[in-house]
Specification:
Length: 603
Amino acid sequence: MIRFIKWLFGLLALAVLVVAGLGAQAWYFRPWSIRVFYEKIFLQTAIDNPELLTSLGLLEQFGITGHNAKLSDASLANQQVQLARAKQNLADLRAYPDAPAGTQERLSQRVLADFLGRVAEGERWQFHNYPVNQLFGVQNNLPSFLVGQHPLRAERDCGYYLQRLAGVSLKFDQTLEGLREREKRGILPPRFVVERVLKEMRDFTALPPAENVLAKSFRERAAKIKDLSEARRTELAGQVERAVHDQVYPAYRKLIAYFEGLLPKTTADDGAWKLPDGKEFYAYALRFATTTNMDPDAVHQLGLAEVARIEADMTKILEGMGQGGRPPGELMKELSKDPKYLPYANTDEGRKEAIAEYTRLIRDAQERSKKLFGLQPTAPVEVRRVPEFKELTSPGAYYEGPTFDGTRPGVFYANLREMGEITKFGMRTLTYHEAVPGHHFQIAIARDLKGLPQFRKILPFTSYAEGWALYTEWLAKDAGWYEGDPLGDLGRLQAELFRAVRLVVDTGIHAQRWPRQQAIDYMLSKTGMGEKDVTAEIERYIVWPGQACAYKVGMLKIQDLRRRAEQALGAKFSLPAFHDVLLRSGSLPLNLLEEEVDAWIKG
């Protein structure tokens, strides 16, 4: 028996060594199995990005939480490591034999090759961006992340929160390193960007530490931790306030000082054309965003044609309401200021009422969606206000996906900065786009998918994701959800017109050298939106070239695929089955999505 036990332990030890050796081979070299290779890529990316790990909520269910004490590395050295790894991963991927055509295994190979290829192509343009701008950057993303995604469920999490606050200074120094490198290369943000960012950071640091959102949110969430005594909560809250004063605010002031010195060097030239090799860069940005080879002129002409078509549809509805004879944009501007279509007071109570209405619309859409979809997300979705410290420069709404472990729902963030901007006739369409059956269905269903590599559940292809959300706005009309509500349908068309106008102004700014004011004036005249909203949108396109074009390009492709399927299948066509085809494989480049639909039709 003793000999047997020794033999058994020896066998176990050998097995451990073999597994460890195979694991090391898989980690440091190309794995023997492509499925292992996929998970290696995912794990390397996640481990190198602790903020992403926190956001996904993958490891907490296994009791692994140490990543919640760290911030992601924003240094130039790490940027080069990630680029080199992407190129090596692409070479390794191509060394595997092709999986059989028509299988998910083959689709995984092609999706990853497409994504890594686009990343590798972007190496030339890695500094052609503004990493700190009025829309996103460490100065607003980091507080949003700590307030909205860092978990606070136990005392241990409070310690992690403090460790992350202690890491803010390094994170800001790394960001400054990248800004200075761009300055050396002649890549400077437009003047308005610097002015907006300076105001945002000055306002953020003007509050006493105890009133800063990082401290206020911590106190509110820590109060819900059951096993934490009142004395300990008070002690931890004091430590957070000191960290804000001693570590966070000095980091912001250093960034403020840099931008104050940068301001005199900036100009009012806004488009990507002004950057080194700006024409070629913008063409790449369009290809990356749309996953097509459309050039700027083709996108611009598509936008003009879509604007004209949608305006004609709006005119028909307006004439039916006795409001014809003038351009739709002019009439929509009047309707958006009519008190009877502005139901919410610009107060905290009015904001609560708006959130309640958005929530009601979500519940209604979930019930209606049962007839249109086979696949349904398991994660819930809720509505929250965009954090006040960033709402002035944030878009009208956005969505954040749920965690994999189910501890955080999908969240539709509504911008409630000015309740006079929220029209009754625009709320339904916004809900369908951001929540159900738009972003929440697509993103939450992707995270539910079984049998696919993890990267397939989180890869971002903007033309697919935003194209889907815009398609679902139209789907609601097609399914009769606006029946008896012509004004709501008018709001839907206004939202679609807004996305068509984006094609025109984005290419106008970055390829045709439109000044910022020309783009603002065009959008104002066409959409009837408020000047604050339009200005924020145009400024968004300036700092994020090409992205805004993905919406309409993706929507039109999905509509085209549906028409193709309906014509080919006739009575055999099933709308729920078609939607399942679109959703069952996660986010895809448009050419691969087209192939998936064609294969389904043929099958």
